[in-house]
Amino acid sequence: EYQKHIRNFSIVAHIDHGKSTIADRILELTDTVSERQMKNQLLDDMPLERQRGITIKLNSVEVKYCAKDGETYFFHLIDTPGHVDFSYEVSRSLVACEGALLIVDASQGVQAQTLANTYLAMDSDLEILPVINKIDLPSADPDMCKDEIEEMLGLDATEAVEVSGKTGKGIPDLLERIVQDIPAPSGDLKAPLKALIFDSKYDDYRGVVLSVRIEDGIVKPGDKIRIMNTGKDFEVTEVGVSSPYPVKKEMLVAGDVGYITANIKSVRETRVGDTITSSCNPTATPLPGYRQIPPMVYSGMYPVDNQKYDDLKEALQKLQLNDAALEFEPETSQALGFGFRCGFLGLLHMDVVQERLEQEFGMQLIMTAPSVDYHAIMNDGSVKLIDNPSDLPDAGEYQDVQEPFVKAEIMVPNDFVGAVMELCQKKHGEFQTMDYLDKFRVNVIYKMPLADIIYDFFDDLKSFTKGYASLDYEIIGYRSTNLVKIDMLLNHEPVDALSFIAHNDEAQTRARQMTSMLKKLIPRQNFEVDVQGAIGAKIISRATIKPYRKDVTWKIHTGDPDRRAKLLEKQRKGKKRMKAIGRVEVPQDAFMAVLKMD
Ligand code: GTP
């Protein structure tokens, strides 16, 4: 009976189309949170999400809704991120649901991630309820939106719900439609326990907190459970739902979405995508789980203080629990010492990981410039994977280097097609096709190197098209493009962490740019520093960083004690993100300089 009153759904949309705002209105209207607790974008509770105003993590919440039929329904709503880097979070949350609210901004219509997320929802066989948001805007055009939803997504939009997350208009209708249109979960209460872990996080007091969708059976405190993929057994200490603060429950039953804690202390014992069953009465087959998504970019991550290597390792393991797409393995750099090579889904993901390690785990890090993974075809025909430019062997040892290519789909209004093509050409793109989506918009398709997409393509695209273009891409394979490795030398010593790979015809320019960037970014030392760029043994660019002039340092030794303390403090802070390479102090920015070249 209870099962019939459950509705599990995700909210999906293109970035900024208003998912989090609509989730807020739903929480408000169902009195899930008191007015005092209500703050904007309540579900974006990570400090970083609030700072940046974007959703990074999926977030689930139980909402009780008293419907017009007089019955109370339990909504399990999962808010998901919209940015292309985080679509793996979306696909994970969809597996826990029967339905999806597809939010489309009434003034912008269907965008690239609207399409991508709709396909994900269709793949999971979800009931999709189209919702047109921001109807309060003067530029809103709900009819155009409906046409696009029908033409481009193949969904019936005649019944689309029109709402404004800002004013709350239409939200009551939306709640009723959720009850009517989204099916209740099925699942056998009497069958052995079968639950999918779709998310997890580490809590210092409770150990690992698992977010689960119960497919079959029942789970309650005291039960013995088994994580099927590791075979490890645990005793359940607590079950409950997030509302959005944790609320304990007596049990979770088939169809429920909630959390389980079981004194799981080691982070290696569970993985997102694993199946939980009962130890005494296990189910025969685990749930399908998730496809592991390969990283798109790699970067080296080193503690500023070498003593903190173990702390960094532990922090990465804990963070990985909450971020299944993060990959890392130990790496040693001559210049930076012991650290990790980490794989990310994109630069935003990389940024987020770095900031979370700093904010949530108090780490201070030096990150090296991101790189895609290259394939070196060695002389004996074998393929060596190169996820760190400094690992590329010397020119004589390989026949060829190949780089990953993507198919990029760019949706853009007619007027900007020229601008988009100009940009893609500049980024080594090869034009494929161009389809008219409707009277005003075009889908432009290019093949281009992944490296050209991940660095700053997205920002450039936004500025070239006044923010009107949207982008989606997928890897299609590897190609030879005439690449060379450029090494950077400080005082004639190559610094492995500064090496990068570039197209041969641009090597000279890039080396020069990098040299002058380093000259700008590395502060003066009390001796002269030579900066050089080289291909193999051949120096192709050079610059000199002049030493301090004497009168800069005396400040520290004189003056009143207060002022001196301040100066020392300032110097200490400035040093926080410096790493000594030989005798040269190099700041974090220098390692990222390669990102700032055009
Ligand atoms: P991500 O989670 O980062 O993908 O964004 P989102 O889809 O959750 O969008 P969010 O709810 O953060 O809203 C994006 C912006 O649109 C915010 O500035 C909102 O205030 C604004 N917004 C959301 N709904 C409405 C609406 O109905 N009308 C108007 N005028 N603005 C809205």
TrEMBL record:
Class of enzymatic activity (EC top level): hydrolase
Subcellular location: Cell membrane
Domain Tr-type G: from-to ranges: 4-186
InterPro entries found in the cross-reference section: EF-4, EFG_III/V, EFG_V-like, EFTu-like_2, LepA_C_sf, LepA_CTD, LepA_IV, P-loop_NTPase
A GO-annotated cellular component: plasma membrane
Chain sites annotated for binding GTP: D16, H17, G18, K19, S20, T21, N133, K134, I135, D136
Catalytic activity, reaction form: GTP + H2O = GDP + phosphate + H(+)
Biological-process GO terms, alphabetical: positive regulation of translation
Gene Ontology molecular-function annotations: GTP binding; GTPase activity; ribosome binding; translation elongation factor activity
Topology of this chain in the membrane: Peripheral membrane protein
Its EC number(s): 3.6.5.n1
Keyword set, alphabetical order: Cell membrane, GTP-binding, Hydrolase, Membrane, Nucleotide-binding, Protein biosynthesis
Listed name of the protein: Elongation factor 4
Originating organism: Lactobacillus iners DSM 13335
